[in-house]
């Protein structure tokens, strides 16, 4: 493996339709010869949102991070870390699973809900699996461009990125959800 896609976005192509990855934007948090780990940025999970709202006692939107271990909760947070257990995402963001510290920071007023995005589950690939999927054109790899990972961007993120890529991607951006209906 020559390239690591860590820190980049995976944009699903219409070939990946029919499952959780259909029209997905995945932030790759880890990628090496052993596999890859990422979170889907644009798929809200209403059922899990309702569950966590009851548990936390405050309103929070939960996103499907991916199809693996959907009972695990991850947070992408903007700003100063509220826990020692985190991995940086660039200069302004970090990811953590430290539910206790995150909830305590919200309750204590050290963190606002709009400074974070909550994910249930993650997206994972075994060694060389992602490279094969990219080669088969299930994914397009994109450098991150001034993206606020905590912004509630479930509706238009995939389409906006496809439009910004231009060329043949404009066709994808404007295609129906079910490309067989085109």
TrEMBL record:
Pfam families associated with the record: DUF179
Family matches, as InterPro entries: AlgH-like (IPR003774)
Origin superkingdom: Bacteria
Protein name, UniProt field: Putative transcriptional regulator
Species of the source: Soonwooa buanensis
């Amino acid at each position: 493996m020559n390239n690591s896609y860590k820190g980049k976005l995976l944009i699903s192509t219409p070939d990946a339709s029919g499952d959780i990855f259909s029209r997905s934007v995945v932030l790759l948090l880890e990628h090496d010869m052993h596999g890859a780990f990422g979170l889907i940025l644009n798929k809200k999970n209403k059922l899990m949102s309702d569950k966590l709202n009851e548990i936390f006692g405050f309103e929070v939107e939960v996103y499907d991070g991916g199809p693996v271990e959907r009972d695990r909760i991850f947070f992408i947070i903007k700003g100063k870390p509220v826990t020692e257990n985190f991995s940086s995402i660039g200069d302004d963001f970090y990811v953590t699973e430290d539910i206790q510290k995150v909830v305590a920071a919200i309750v204590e007023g050290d963190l606002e809900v709009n400074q974070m995005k909550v994910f249930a589950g993650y997206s994972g690939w075994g060694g060389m699996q992602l490279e094969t999927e990219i080669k088969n054109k299930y994914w397009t790899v994109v450098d991150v461009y001034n993206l606020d990972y905590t912004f509630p961007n479930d509706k238009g993120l995939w389409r906006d990125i496809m439009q910004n890529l231009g060329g043949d991607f404009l066709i994808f951006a404007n295609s129906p959800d079910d490309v067989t209906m085109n």
